Amino acid sequence: SPKDSLESVKLKRATIDEALQERQLMIDALPDSRSKELRQLESYLLMRSRNQMLRQFKRWSARSRARMWRENTFYALDTTQEALNLTSNILSYQAFTQSELSGHASIVGLVAKSISTANPTARNIAGNLINRYQTAKVGRELKELPMERAEKLVNKWGSEKELLELAAAEGSSDRQIEQLTLLVEGSEAIDKLIDKESAKIEKLQRVAAQQTVSGTAIGFLSLTQQIMGVIAFYGFRNDPLTSNRIRFAGRIPQVVGQSYSLIKTPTTQALSVIKERKLKRLGESESQELQMRLTELSKIEKRVRAW
After folding, report:
1. Cα gap 199→259, rounded to integer Å
2. CA angle 60-66-72, nearest 5°?
3. Does residue 196 register a pLDDT over 90?
4. What three-state secondary structure class fits 38?
5. Nearest to 232 by CA among 217, 220, 242, 218
6. For 66-104, how does the pLDDT look when each residue is reduced to its tens digit (9 = 90+)?
7. Measured between alpha carbons, how far is 153 from 41 in angstroms, rounded to an integer?
8. Contacts of 137 (CB under 8 A, 6+ apart)
């Protein structure tokens, strides 16, 4: 649950912060030297790793809650819409023997199509609001300290090679040099990973926005048919010829919307499958990237435990 996961992260953060504070006290006690500056750089990189993990958790927490609310909003509105459609169809069936029910069926159908039209926008609004709320809520609980990018911190010392050569010249042990290498490479790699994930999120948001537009357009075309049906019944009930013409005119945009939906849905699914297969060939699918990250974490854990 969001509460349990947040408490777990807060507990781990407290443990890490306590260790970093203890480390900082030891560094402050060292005499001023290049070696002390190297130890301070390590502390900065460790703090950046702490911040990066908190940032990833906050982003994951907000996105997972937003997705849940987006899906639940969609299911709730979709269920309501289909229940109203069922009611409209039952009334239409009864209208064969009780003609006055035809108008009621049209009105219920109008409400159903209105919900269908609003559903794509409503679910995205719900998701975005929860995303902002959860981001702010978790942000208050897990504050980050402003820090420069890892690459900028390291560049102050020259290249990575020059930094490691300086560490060796200052009497750092092989283990200390290995630790520094791990911190530098790991911090820069995570920065690039976060940049990549941010770009991916922005792309997904653009795709979601496009789907919202197309879904609303399809719903609106069907809504037009229901509006025409209501007008035909209540405005021209006593003029069957005009009433039928209006109903027929309303069917035209409905056919356009349903035709577009029949083309759009399988096309989107086919493109999604093709893209996923391409990513798998390149080793860049989400499951593969996650597995690579887990494998890398296992390697780091083994190295740390070996120290």
Report:
1. 33
2. 135
3. no
4. helix
5. 242
6. 989 999 998 999 899 899 989 988 988 888 888 778 888
7. 8
8. none
Note if the pTM is more than 0.85: no
Provide the greatest CA pair distance for the chain: 100
One-letter amino acid for residue 101 of the chain: L
The three-state (H, E, C) secondary structure of 244-269, written as one string = HHHHHHHHHHHHHHHHHHHHHHHHHH
**pLDDT higher for 256 or 79?**
79
The number of beta carbons lying within 10 Å of the beta carbon of residue 223 is 24
DSSP state of 192: H
Q: Which residues, 6+ apart, have CB-to-CB distance to 39 below 8 Å?
A: 27, 30
Q: Residue 235 and residue 248: Cα distance in Å, rounded?
A: 15
What is d(CA 255, CA 246) in angstroms, rounded to the nearest whole number?
15
- Count CB neighbours of 146 within 10 A: 5
How far apart are alpha carbons 229 and 225 in whole angstroms? Answer: 6
